[in-house]
Specification:
Family: Belongs to the zinc-containing alcohol dehydrogenase family.
Keywords: Metal-binding, Oxidoreductase, Zinc
Strand content: 25-35%
Pfam families: ADH_N, ADH_zinc_N
Organism: Paenibacillus aurantiacus
Number of strands: 17
Order of helices and strands: EEEHEEEHEEEHHEHEHEHEHEHEHEHE
Number of domains: 2
Cofactor: Zn(2+)
Number of helices: 11
Largest sheet: 7 strands, mixed
CATH topology of the largest domain: Quinone Oxidoreductase, Chain A, domain 1
């Protein structure tokens, strides 16, 4: 079968590899769609993460079960599934406290185990979640990033009627927008440099869209809200959005960081001291796939709206990673390994 392996920065190769074998408690999935994630982009640009112990990428994927191992009861051959990539140990202190996303011995499909940029993947049965009738496999590949957004909103202090700001309108930003809308935000500001992404944000329910190259986003948000939003989310991961996001939060509010960062940032901590605002992080998700599948299947979150391209595995680099690097019109690109 074909699989995409990463060897270094800007060095991803689609190669022939052996089809993985099924063991007890495992299921073989013929991969239908795999999303290119922002964290995949970071590895493509800056090189593999230290956690990576094998080269096959892809942690946002869906497919059809083609074979099951001994003892498998959760799924059957023919089931359409979304795969949760997290593989917590279950026994470390963080896992015992319920923070399985922060497992100190964390593993995951697409990082420590072969991922979804391949024609087939073998996963634990507990990592395969059956999709309901009528929910497409394309949406199945959106379950993982949507879970990231939903977890961030659930972890934040956002309450019904609050105002929110989202910095960055890539896939996670657009999913955050829909999640805060579903959670009852009364006003939603989206800050994004790309005109196409601002247009999409407006279509998905943003109250205000701001081009930070033309407008001081933090000043605009403070003026429009009389002091700042209750919660701001960073989904871009650059110095400019961090600084604007901190200043866009009202006294006592929260700046929630959802993005992955390539470089450290600097800021004036007096901004936080003087306003008693807080800065917090959000990482992955905890036991959210069933809820997120319902949100996507029911159209409460429109996953289809963030998909801009579907490409073949052979075209992963040029039409996938390079396109996302150079073309701001692209948002979520899905890869179809079987095509």
């Amino acid at each position: 079968m074909k699989a995409a392996k990463i060897y270094g920065a800007k060095d991803i190769r689609v190669e022939e590899v052996a089809v993985p074998e099924v063991a007890a408690g495992m299921v073989k999935v013929e991969v239908a769609y795999t999303g290119i994630c922002g964290s995949d982009m970071h590895e493509y640009i800056a090189g593999p993460y230290p956690i990576r112990t094998q080269p096959v990428l892809g942690h946002e994927f869906s497919g059809v079960v083609t074979e099951i191992g001994e003892g498998v009861t959760r799924v059957k051959v023919g089931d359409r599934v979304a795969v949760e990539p997290l593989m917590p140990c279950g026994s470390c202190e963080n896992c015992r406290r319920g923070f399985v996303n922060l497992c100190s011995a964390r593993q995951g499909y697409g990082y420590t185990h072969s991922g979804g940029f391949a024609e087939y993947a073998v996963v634990k049965q507990e990592n395969a979640f059956v999709l309901p009738e009528g929910m497409s496999l394309e949406l199945g590949a959106l379950v993982e990033p949507t879970a990231v957004a939903v977890h961030a909103v659930r972890q934040s202090r956002l309450k019904l009627g609050d105002r929110a700001a989202i910095f960055g309108a890539g896939p996670i930003g657009l999913l955050l927008l829909q999640a805060v809308k579903a959670a009852g935000a009364s006003e939603i500001f989206v800050v994004e440099v790309s005109e196409e992404r601002r247009t999409k944000a407006a279509e998905l329910g943003a109250t205000h869209v701001v081009n930070p190259l033309e407008t001081d986003a933090a000043a605009f948000i403070r003026e429009m809200t009389g002091g700042g939003v209750e919660v701001a989310y960073d989904a871009a991961g650059v110095q400019a959005t961090f600084q604007s996001g901190v200043y866009a939060v009202r006294p006592g509010g929260e700046f929630k960081i959802v993005s992955v960062w390539e470089k450290p940032v600097t800021f004036d901590p007096n901004v936080i001291v003087r306003t008693e605002a807080s800065i917090s992080g959000s990482y992955a998700y905890v036991n959210l796939f069933p809820e997120v599948i319902r949100l996507l299947a029911g159209g409460i979150i429109d996953g289809q709206a963030v998909i801009t391209s579907i490409i073949a595995l052979d075209d992963l680099v040029e039409q996938g990673f390079e396109a996302l690097t150079q073309d701001r019109k692209q948002c979520k690109i899905l890869v179809a390994p079987a095509k």
